[in-house]
Amino acid sequence: MKQQIYTCELQQSTRLSAGTFELALSRPRDFTFQPGQRIRLLDRYRERDYSLVNAPADSSLRLCIRRVPAGSFTASLHAAATGSRFQFSGPHGYFVFRSTSRPAVFVATGTGIAPFASMARAKTRGFTLLHGVKSPDDLYYADLFHATAGTYVPCISGKASTAARWFHGRVTGYVEKELPPGTYDFYLCGRTEMIRDVTWLIDEHFPDSNVYSEIFF
Ligand SMILES: Cc1cc2nc3c(=O)[nH]c(=O)nc-3n(C[C@H](O)[C@H](O)[C@H](O)COP(=O)(O)OP(=O)(O)OC[C@H]3O[C@@H](n4cnc5c(N)ncnc54)[C@H](O)[C@@H]3O)c2cc1C
Question: N or C: where does the chain have the smaller number of CB atoms within 10 Å of the terminal CB?
Answer without folding.
Answer: N
